[in-house]
Amino acid sequence: MDITTLLSADRIACKPDVSSKKRAFEQLAEMLAIGQQVLSAAAIFDALTSREKLGSTTIGNGVAIPHACMSVTQPRGALLLLEDGVKMDTPDRKPVQLFMAILVPTNQAPDYSELITQLTSTLIQKALIEQICSQHDQQTLLDHFISLFNPPSHPFEGALAA
């Protein structure tokens, strides 16, 4: 699964006024509901919070990756970056500033753990999180996030092989 195809600018919120875990999950659900007809924001919120009750989706360094399998046609993501973060059950007790929520079609559940692993291994890096958290608008945040998972190739890469 290509992480860079999960996001679009309309499913990114950069530093909105959110001060609770519940409101963060509501905002994520609202964004994940954009542009699809199958699920309501309320159903998505319920799925994300139900999954969260099974165990915290925080990974440390101010990051959480809430996720759920649902009846969507393709995987989709939403990115929420908060100014100060919200209190959650985190391994390092730091407030969560960055939420990367993922919905995966039920029939793609096996691929979903690979996606979470890929996100976790990148987003656990403190220096990268500091770079992400320094962004101030949706498009810049999207571009920066995509560059982490899809770095540009070297411009002379093809020429050397010829």
UniProtKB/TrEMBL annotation:
<dbReference type="InterPro" id="IPR051541">
    <property type="entry name" value="PTS_SugarTrans_NitroReg"/>
</dbReference>
<dbReference type="InterPro" id="IPR002178">
    <property type="entry name" value="PTS_EIIA_type-2_dom"/>
</dbReference>
<protein>
    <recommendedName>
        <fullName>PTS EIIA type-2 domain-containing protein</fullName>
    </recommendedName>
</protein>
<dbReference type="InterPro" id="IPR016152">
    <property type="entry name" value="PTrfase/Anion_transptr"/>
</dbReference>
<feature type="domain" description="PTS EIIA type-2">
    <location>
        <begin position="5"/>
        <end position="148"/>
    </location>
</feature>
<dbReference type="Pfam" id="PF00359">
    <property type="entry name" value="PTS_EIIA_2"/>
</dbReference>
<dbReference type="GO" id="GO:0030295">
    <property type="term" value="F:protein kinase activator activity"/>
</dbReference>
